[in-house]
Amino acid sequence: MTVSYTGDVANASSFGCFSTILCRWRGSIYKLIYKELLAYIMAYFIINLTYRVVLVPKSECDMTLPSCQRWKSYRELFEALRLYCHENLKTVPLTFMLGFYVSLIVTRWWKQYNLLPWPDSFGMLVTGLYNPGSGDKGRMMRRSIIRYITLSYCIALRTVSFRLKKRFPTLEHLVHAGIMRDDELEEFRKLDEKISANKWFLPLVWVSKMIGNGLQEGHILAPTAGALMKEVGKIRQNLQTLLSYDWLCVPLVYTQTVTLATYFYFGAALIGSQWVMPATSDAYEKVYKTPAGDFVKLDLVFPVFVLIQFCFFLGWLKVAETLINPFGEDDDDFE
Asked: According to the model, what pLDDT value does residue 295 have?
């Protein structure tokens, strides 16, 4: 279920009220990106050490030697490639692409949550409006109506929810749980011989029939029956729309474009963010837009700002990957 933290930040006047939630692991950005972050740091330092340990020492030698000239050309080629990648990274509109994509996914995720029907609301209507008589018969009829609503709910969400599919792998498991009877399971199997589509709506048909019988027998008034049927139709529509969200995903080309753009951006940043040490002061100033000192040149080994950028952008992408299917098994998925 979605990780709840509103109770921990109820008092905004306290100092650092968000500090209590920044150290959480479940559902956090740290849990989502730590594998990619470690791989990225490792790849960065492999390239960085290759430049510092191999290219630089081998290029600082007697230029009359052919091997020294070759290593010097390799070093200059790497430094030119680094400058090329660094300058062209600015032309990738990654912020715009990710922002629009995540906004679309979050809106889609929230709409799916609002579509989830609540059987207890229908139960209140049935208890208050449907009066098939006193005694065990009336109680069992009301219970059957609520059970059919729950049965339709379970069968529909089994097709999209991994957790519910594990809880009820087959319709027999619904019988064992007491949500379906054996004779009702036989009705489903008879229909399997005629149609192979998902028959999650069949219990709603049974509910409609019971409401119609109650109207004919005088247990329910016509306006009341209309209110109940309207609620049944609303539940059917919500469940059908939920299934439609699973059938009609965000266009694959859009998801591929955003994902490839993010990974290619940081793939190029592996070269473009390397801290190189050009041989001349003029080259140093051209690369870093800063004059080189007479005695010392700034040399940063750890790419602080690149890793911060990596965490933010990849975390943004991971938000979309987590919420694109809210019925999975992630920490922020629906249970």
From this structure: 47
